[in-house]
Every structure is written in C-alpha cells, then in structure tokens.
Specification:
Blueprint lengths: L4 H18 L7 H24 L7 H4 L4 E9 L6 E10 L10 E6 L11 E8 L13 E2 L6 E3 L6 H5 L7 E5 L14 E4 L1 H8 L5 H6 L10 H10 L2
Parallel strand pairs: 6-7
Antiparallel strand pairs: 1-2, 1-4, 2-3, 3-8, 4-7, 5-8
Helix pairs in contact: 1-2
C-alpha cells in the first residue's frame, strides 16, 4: 500500500497530539514516553517537508539563508473553544560553524493564528533571524510578537513574494492561513522550555541552553532526519 506524505504526517501528528493529552496522566514506562516524544519530533519534520513541498507555503531560500534559528510548532484546539490552547514544537539553532544543532522540544500554545473555522490545528514555522531571540526562552515564557517583533514572511510563490524585499524582523512567521500578507505584524502565542521532556528524549541532565548551543549530546538516530533536512534547506 502506498503511503503518501500527508498520510504520514497525519499519523505522526495523531500520535504526538495523543501523547500531549495522555502523557501527564498515565504511568507508562520511560521507553513508551520517549517514543511519544520522538513522534513529536518526527511530526515536526513532516510539517516542514509539507510546507516546503508546496510553492504557496514554501519559505524562500533567501529567507532561510538568514536563519539563525528555526521553530516548528503543532498546536491544537482544546474542546469546543475556538482557539489554540496547547501544543508542542521544536527549536533548532545554527552554530557558528554553520551546523544546525539538536531539535529541542518546547511547549506552544495560546494562539488563534491560522486557525480556520471548523479546524482543529495550527502548524507554524518561525524563522528567527537574530542570535538573541532564541535565548529569550531560557528563563521564561516567550510571547511571539510581544517579546520580539514578528511578521508574516514572504513565500516562494506569487508575484508579491517574488518581488518582496527580505523583511527586517527578528521573527518571520509562516502558516497555512490564507489572506495574511507578507510583512503584516502578528502575535503568535507563546513558546516555553520543556526540560523534563528533553531529559527523557536525550537521556541527559543537560537543559535547554546546553542542548541548543552545546555539542555534548550525540544526536539519536530518530532526530537525525530533521537535522539533515534543516541543514539541506539552510546550509
């Protein structure tokens, strides 16, 4: 049976979202919990692949060339409330030698950006163009568009995108919501560190700063595809 990229993403997203709902309440063994966290990383990889596969959502090469960090989030509505209340994501930073580091898990939520009427999820990619913004997540909740200016980024397709100058903002936001113009200022919820999840994922006592900027943890096999994908897109 053929497995299409969209089917793969749906399956990974379902598993990852299920883990968000069930992980705090269940007494599963560490191997099962770690598998759930791996599913989150893999679903973020699938989200990035899907964005880049379609011209109307693809991030231009010129934007990716300026990236110093990339955040991929998957957020979803809680119950019947029209708005995103919970979710997860990964953040990766580019080291001084041009290599991209480990994907580090973060919490994400409290936004309605990209949420369509009747929809249940928001998939968003943040391209961070400076060195300081990723560090805002070290000690507190980072509110995208409040703690650092965030604007909608230009896409690879379309006349406007093709002629649009590279936007000078710390955070360029990409979502699948139509009708959002490149350069428009947005608020896109919050991101916060999740040291407990990362300790389990990487079997380490290192926390977010060391994982993002250090070289002390060997990347597990399961996170290497995402690292290679980001490296190929933003060398």
């Amino acid at each position: 049976m053929l497995i299409f990229p969209g089917m793969k993403k749906f399956a990974l997203t379902f598993l990852a979202l299920l883990s968000v709902a069930l992980l705090p309440a269940r007494a599963a063994d560490s191997a099962s919990k770690r598998a759930d966290l791996m599913a989150r990383v893999e679903s973020c990889e699938a989200i990035l692949q899907e964005f880049m596969a379609r011209p109307e959502t693809a991030i231009p090469k010129a934007v990716l060339a300026r990236a110093r960090a990339i955040v991929i989030t998957n957020q979803f509505a809680a119950g019947f409330v029209l708005g995103v209340k919970s979710g997860y994501g990964v953040v990766m930073v580019k080291h001084a030698d041009g290599r991209w580091g480990l994907p580090v898990l973060v919490n994400a939520g409290e936004t309605s950006l990209g949420l369509q009427l009747g929809g249940a999820a928001v998939e968003t990619i943040f391209v961070v163009t400076d060195e300081q913004t990723p560090r805002l997540m070290f000690n507190r909740r980072f509110n995208v568009g409040v703690d650092a200016r965030a604007v909608m980024g230009p896409h690879s397709a379309g006349k406007e995108s093709a002629n649009h100058p590279i936007i000078d903002a710390p955070v360029l936001v990409y979502t699948k919501k139509s009708g959002l113009f490149a350069g428009a200022t947005v608020k896109a919820g919050y991101l916060s560190r999740n040291d407990e999840a990362n300790r389990l994922l990487y079997n380490t006592r290192f926390t977010m700063p060391e994982l993002l900027y250090g070289d002390w943890v060997t990347p597990p096999t399961e996170v290497q595809p995402l690292m290679k994908l980001v490296q190929s897109l933003a060398p």
